Amino acid sequence: MAELRPTDHIAEITWLGMVPQDRPNIRSQSVESARATYAGFEGDFHAGLTRKSCVRVKQQHPIGTEIRNTRQLSILSAEEMDEIAQAIGLETLDPRLLGVSLVIRGIPDFTHVPPGSRLQAENGTTLVVDVENGPCNLPAREIECDAPGHGQGFKAAARGRQGVTGWVEREGLLALGDTLRLHVPDQRPCAHQ
Questions:
Q1: What is the domain range of residue 58?
Q2: What InterPro entries does the database record attribute to this sequence (predicted)?
């Protein structure tokens, strides 16, 4: 039995971005295409096979411990970004302000796809979903900087809608307009949650 099964859910890449290595903040820069390597997007601040642990995993590792980098990419859905924008009173939400790697359109309730799911492009490039990307204050600051009065509500509005973090399983090029097929683990949910 296969551990993953392809679904009928196909997403289109509507936005790609990279956070510069010499970043003054979390903002991404828009790009037309990105080379996904085993370390993440070439040239991205978050690229690397390993990273220093942060507050998000402090229950498992002391902060600053070298761990596997499963946060190479930040993937959000255009549909959920629209919901966040509406909740904070904006017409649209600029993905640059969130430090996003990919924005996709076409997978309902994307933030809640099961961990371990894959997003596979037609050329074989494959991204693995790690976990939900919990909202933090850094994007709120960037939103507030560009749209005063709207950033303060971001964290609450983004809860359950800020997409997922992920890492590269199979290298390849990704470009605007590429499609990604969702593959999900073929297992029942854990009874111990």
A1: 4-185
A2: MoCF_Sase_C, MOSC_domain, Pyrv_Knase-like_insert_dom_sf
DSSP 103-125: EEES-TTGGGSPTT-EEEETT--
Q: Is residue 49 within 8 Å of 128, Cβ to Cβ?
A: no
Return d(Cα 128, Cα 173) in angstroms, integer.
Answer: 15
pLDDT in tens, 60-119: 999 999 999 999 999 999 999 999 999 999 999 999 999 999 999 999 899 999 999 999
Answering whether pTM is above 0.85, one says yes
Q: Per-residue pLDDT averaged across 176-180, rounded?
A: 98
Tokens standing for residue 38: 């085993």
Number of domains in the chain: 1
Q: Is residue 191 part of a domain?
A: no
For residue 140, the model assigns a pLDDT of 94
Show Cβ contacts of residue 64 under 8 Å, excluding neighbours closer than 6 positions: 52, 53
b (16+ CB within 10 A) / e for 40-55: bbeebbbbeeebebee
